[in-house]
Structure to design on (1173 residues):
């Protein structure tokens, strides 16, 4: 109390309604939950499928199987070699990258907001009463682990390098040498956006310059920080479009690999 | 002359009250506060409304308009569907004094717990030299008009009053960030940001940013950078390892201000 | 109705929690005095937050030729030499330290390339002089002072275990009477807590008034609801005197459309940063309104004016940057001549003068204000602006060095005090005024306390009277609606004692005020004591009424036009009237007005001007002999 006249203990206005908002506040969380569920379902099916992940003609490898390290990996797809014996796809072929990418996205400041709101409903929308009786935020295990986001970031940078390597491989013509097809372009777009998402990460922003007190003493890092900040302001957009391009890239390669249609080639 | 609108206003005190309908005239270009003033002048002289500058600069007239936390002076009547009643209720997170006025003293108590600006005492009057790029981040946070809409909307306390003691709220976590980024400040508030002011309770769901009338990017520019700084201090295994093997000794963080909690045995006083 | 009155005891009570009030309170607390700050609104909401442009201080960061003498000269010119010259001197000398002090307390002003505080151009200031933060300087100042108070409370918490042991802010508390002891010394302040309606008596030997202005006396004003002339009225009621209340500043640029935001300030920085005023014919009309006294310093062609922004040393300033009174009158004249904008103002154009991103960077809150409230994008189209009441130069007559009023124990600082700005205040001189004289009033109170041998005792009769006065509107049944009386009073003052005044109109106003005064005495408020705005307004009406009378009487008496006082029937400035201060006092419930000669300006200060300029303002006898002799060579 800032005043000595401690009036009788005051209470909040008792308003029974969960919210008095009249706009369709439930729409965004509902759409978010639906899209995330669809994506996770698709990705789960694909990751455990063990088929149609590589187009040997053009060296197209889906990001869901990169790096392919299982003994089962089809020839040419295992860019880093196979580290495991031939195992059924109950163990994902990209065992060394997928958990970290998943961890990166799960601990991402944007996705946290998205799933806290749409799945956990804490809160469902602003000024809408949430259904939970108690709340401890990110102060306890397991959510305190969100603080490790920066490590997932570093690993994801490595995976993004690998994705870039996969992309370079995909400039492969069917007669050998350099070639370019629609698949290459799709992979290109995907990789560019993945970099945009990865480098726009809040941890990256902190590491490049955010943690500094004086920008003026570190002009290069300040410059980098302004670039990262530009990406960071669009982090949500990158988060969603990369989900889209990941799915599209994978689906495209799957359909090619399954022989549903053939890759339109621009040359070779 | 203007049209009649229906204002559905929460009236009451001591927590008890009800929504009362009023028919009030509204003219082109008017904001909610204009219509509330007309209501006071013509029908309900004792209707309690807190306001001051009526220009979006002081942050006094915070209330909930159709369930959305907003400033009454910056909410134009034209945003509402004609013919529909407009519901006005007091901020839900703070105790109500009367009608649309709430007791926001919670915020002033929190403000007092944060260690103040701590410059190098050797710097004399007029001797500060700071570059614009260095002050810009904190300047954004200093745009805050203390309307407390972010404090009101934050579910951490709005839906869980039991967190009120442990959580300073977005406005004051932003104040911590502001001081941490102040180029001439020398204190280290990272430990207390987490331990005393409840940064860990924030789950960055961004409602504070959504309601900010000054369009301050509270979450992206203050809270998340602060979480990252805290992670660097408290949750970074490499930093921890470094401090254990003595490569980088860890200076003690600045303690929360003693005697400002209003009760004894607080976390703030045990730390330090 | 018998009420328990809460009694609290302090060394110093500061009424008002804006820039000057907080600065005064900080000074008193730093001197070890137990200090109470009374705030009519919440802590940190005071009208100071509305100040946009900046805080004038001759730090010389942008132009090393700037110094206190230049600032003093500008201030005197702006006030048309009616200023209390000692105050103008102290102000010009001490402002830089007060700004730097804010910086040491955590304020983050915009910076120059070499890391100093950046300063911007403003009307009437010869050099870029206003320390600023975008266009929200007042907010920065109030927040810094607020946070300094908090910092002091933290020290006290550590030392005494109670943050409010030495300095305490009473938010949403109104003072209705100052109470005195038998010897006529200040003994305390009486009022009520707005939230509960509970009555309170602050017993204190020293009271500092820092209540701001009187905007709510007028209809179109940029002032907030708090500006009901409380401090002016409290001083009068306590037996102190007001000076030069006829000088009311009508700031030239406010929004005029939509109606609901009429009077919302458009900062002078728009013009300082290159914005120009045009009439409906697209003409930059200000070139036709440069008065003789300012002709030498102002450009005569658009080309020269435009060159000035980049090369101020070799060009003269654009006429858009004339002092506020000149610009306000010019806009008024253009609109009256039928060359105004569709809603009765003129056009202020920044869109064609600066790139959009630069406008956004320098004037962010102006951009949002127009975008959100008027659907106008100021980076693409001109703004419609017109004058509105903004500031009152008149106020409590005080000792320049201490802020002491004529009643022992009473002090005043900031807008509520008079003298500093003469007949017209320069933009940017207000924030610096608050700091300089806030501190001085704090010191003055501390000094006064040191000389006291006994603590003045409150007389019981005064308390009973004060209590009766406060509860009267609640107890009265079926009286007038306070809102209606207030609206009529504002209309009367705006129509008849507004920006341009005439004898017959002022006389009509005085007659109207007489009637309104009777009605104001008979208002009643519905509802109870808990947070009841109707009741609060009923109480504020007393103050607005008495101030309106002071303004009208002084306006009637001063038969000349000068600064914030323009008489249609006496359009010229008179050097005879320059020597006169009009003093308003209260005898019973009758407002009285007397003429009081001004103290002659100290010689070394006069020597800062050349004779030719002085001759435009002063009578021949006043012109300094030494200077006169020099002239002959």
């Amino acid at each position: 109390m800032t005043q000595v006249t401690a009036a009788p203990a005051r209470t909040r206005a008792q308003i029974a309604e969960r919210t008095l908002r009249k706009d369709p506040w439930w729409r965004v969380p509902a759409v978010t939950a639906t899209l995330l569920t669809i994506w996770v379902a698709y990705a789960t099916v694909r990751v455990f499928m063990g088929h149609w992940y590589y187009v040997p003609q053009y060296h197209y490898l889906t990001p869901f199987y990169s790096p392919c390290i299982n003994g089962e990996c089809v020839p040419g797809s295992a860019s880093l070699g196979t580290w495991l014996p031939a195992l059924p796809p109950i163990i994902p072929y990209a065992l060394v990258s997928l958990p970290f990418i998943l961890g990166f996205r799960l601990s991402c400041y944007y996705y946290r907001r998205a799933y806290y709101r749409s799945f956990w409903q804490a809160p469902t929308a602003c000024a809408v009463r949430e259904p939970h009786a108690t709340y401890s935020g990110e102060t306890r295990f397991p959510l305190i682990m969100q603080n490790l986001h920066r490590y997932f970031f570093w690993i994801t940078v490595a995976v993004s390098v690998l994705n870039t390597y996969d992309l370079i491989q995909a400039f492969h013509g069917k007669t050998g040498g350099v070639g370019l097809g629609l698949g290459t372009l799709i992979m290109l777009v995907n990789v560019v956006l993945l970099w945009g998402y990865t480098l726009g990460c809040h941890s990256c922003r902190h590491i490049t310059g955010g943690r500094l007190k004086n920008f003026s003493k570190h002009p290069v890092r300040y410059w980098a920080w302004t670039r990262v900040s530009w990406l960071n302001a669009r982090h949500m957009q990158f988060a969603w479009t990369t989900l889209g391009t990941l799915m599209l890239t994978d689906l495209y390669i799957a359909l090619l690999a399954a022989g549903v249609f053939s890759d339109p080639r621009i040359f070779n | 002359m203007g049209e009649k609108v229906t204002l559905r206003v929460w009236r009451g005190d001591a927590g008890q009250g009800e929504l009362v309908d009023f028919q009030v005239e509204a003219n082109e270009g008017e904001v909610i506060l204009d219509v509330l003033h007309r209501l006071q002048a013509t029908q309900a002289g004792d209707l309690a409304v807190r306001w001051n500058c009526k220009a979006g600069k002081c942050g006094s007239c915070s209330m909930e308009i159709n369930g959305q936390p907003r400033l009454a002076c910056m909410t134009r009547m034209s945003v509402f569907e004609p013919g529909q009643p407009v519901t006005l209720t007091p901020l839900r997170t703070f105790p109500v004094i009367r009608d649309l006025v709430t007791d926001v003293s919670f915020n002033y108590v929190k403000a007092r717990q944060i260690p103040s600006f701590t410059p190098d005492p050797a710097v004399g009057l007029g001797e500060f030299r700071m570059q614009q790029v260095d002050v810009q981040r904190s300047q954004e946070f200093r745009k805050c008009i203390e309307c407390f809409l972010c404090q009101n909307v934050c579910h951490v306390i709005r839906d869980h009053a039991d967190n009120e003691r442990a959580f300073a709220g977005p406005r004051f976590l932003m104040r911590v960030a502001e001081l941490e980024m102040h180029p001439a400040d020398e204190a280290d508030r990272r430990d207390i940001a987490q331990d005393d002011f409840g940064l860990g309770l924030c789950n960055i769901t961004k409602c504070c940013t959504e309601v900010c009338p000054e369009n301050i990017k509270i979450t992206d520019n203050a809270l998340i950078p602060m979480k990252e700084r805290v992670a660097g201090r408290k949750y970074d295994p490499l930093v921890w390892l470094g401090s254990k093997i003595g490569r980088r000794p860890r200076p003690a963080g600045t303690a929360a201000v003693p005697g400002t909690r209003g009760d004894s045995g607080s976390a703030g006083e045990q730390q330090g | 109705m018998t009420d328990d009155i809460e009694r609290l005891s302090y060394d110093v009570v500061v009424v008002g929690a804006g820039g000057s009030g907080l600065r005064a309170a900080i000074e008193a607390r730093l001197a070890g005095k137990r200090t109470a700050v009374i705030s009519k609104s919440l802590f940190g909401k005071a009208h100071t937050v509305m100040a946009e442009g900046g805080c004038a201080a001759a730090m010389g960061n942008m132009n090393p030729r700037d110094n206190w003498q230049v600032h003093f000269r500008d201030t005197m010119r702006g006030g048309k030499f009616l200023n209390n010259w000692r105050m103008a001197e102290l102000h010009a000398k001490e402002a830089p330290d007060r700004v730097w002090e804010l910086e040491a307390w955590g304020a983050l002003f915009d910076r120059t390339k070499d890391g100093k505080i950046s300063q911007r151009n403003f009307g009437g200031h010869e050099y870029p002089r206003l320390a600023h933060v975008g266009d929200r300087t007042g907010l920065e100042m109030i927040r810094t002072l607020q946070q300094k108070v908090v910092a002091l409370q933290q020290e006290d918490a550590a030392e005494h275990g109670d943050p409010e042991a030495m300095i305490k802010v009473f938010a949403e508390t109104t003072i209705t009477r100052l109470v005195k002891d038998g010897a006529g010394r200040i003994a305390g302040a009486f009022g009520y807590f707005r939230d509960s309606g509970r009555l309170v008596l602050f017993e204190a030997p020293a009271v500092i008034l820092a209540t701001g202005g009187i905007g709510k006396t007028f209809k179109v004003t940029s002032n907030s609801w708090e500006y009901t002339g409380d401090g002016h009225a409290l001083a009068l009621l306590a037996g102190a005197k007001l000076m030069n209340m006829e000088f009311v500043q009508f700031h030239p640029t406010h929004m005029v459309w939509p109606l609901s935001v009429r009077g919302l300030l458009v900062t002078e920085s728009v013009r300082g940063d290159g914005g120009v005023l045009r009439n409906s014919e697209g003409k930059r009309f200000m070139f036709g309104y440069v008065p003789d006294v300012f002709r030498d310093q102002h450009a005569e062609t658009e080309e020269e004016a435009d060159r000035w922004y980049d090369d101020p040393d070799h060009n003269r300033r654009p006429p858009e940057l004339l002092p506020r009174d000149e610009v306000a009158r010019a806009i008024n004249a253009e609109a009256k001549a039928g060359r105004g904008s569709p809603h009765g103002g003129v056009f202020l154009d920044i869109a064609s003068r600066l790139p959009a991103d630069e406008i956004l960077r320098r004037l962010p809150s102006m951009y949002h204000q127009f975008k959100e409230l008027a659907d106008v994008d100021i980076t693409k189209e001109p703004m419609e602006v017109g004058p509105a009441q903004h500031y009152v130069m008149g106020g409590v007559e005080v000792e320049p060095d201490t802020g002491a009023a004529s009643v022992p124990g009473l002090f005043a600082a900031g807008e509520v005090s008079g003298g500093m700005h003469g007949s017209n205040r320069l933009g940017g001189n207000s924030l610096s005024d608050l700091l300089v004289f806030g501190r001085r009033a704090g010191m003055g109170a501390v000094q006064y306390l040191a000389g006291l041998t006994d603590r003045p005792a409150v007389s019981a009769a005064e308390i009973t009277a004060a209590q009766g006065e406060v509860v009267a509107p609640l107890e009265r049944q079926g009286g007038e609606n306070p809102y209606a009386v207030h609206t009529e009073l504002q209309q009367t003052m705006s129509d008849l004692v507004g920006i341009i005044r005439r004898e017959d109109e002022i006389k009509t106003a005085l007659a109207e005020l007489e009637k309104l005064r009777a009605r104001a005495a008979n208002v009643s408020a519905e509802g109870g004591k808990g947070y009841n705005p109707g009741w609060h307004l009923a109480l504020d009406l007393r103050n607005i009424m008495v101030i309106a009378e002071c303004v009208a009487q002084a306006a009637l008496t001063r038969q000349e036009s000068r600064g914030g006082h323009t008489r249609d029937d006496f359009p010229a400035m008179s050097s005879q009237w320059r020597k006169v201060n009009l003093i308003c006092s209260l005898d019973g419930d009758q407002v009285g007005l007397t003429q009081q000669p001004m103290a002659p300006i100290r010689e070394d200060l006069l020597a800062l001007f050349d004779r030719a300029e002085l001759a435009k303002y002063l009578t021949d006898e006043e012109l300094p002999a030494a200077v006169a002799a020099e002239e002959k060579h």
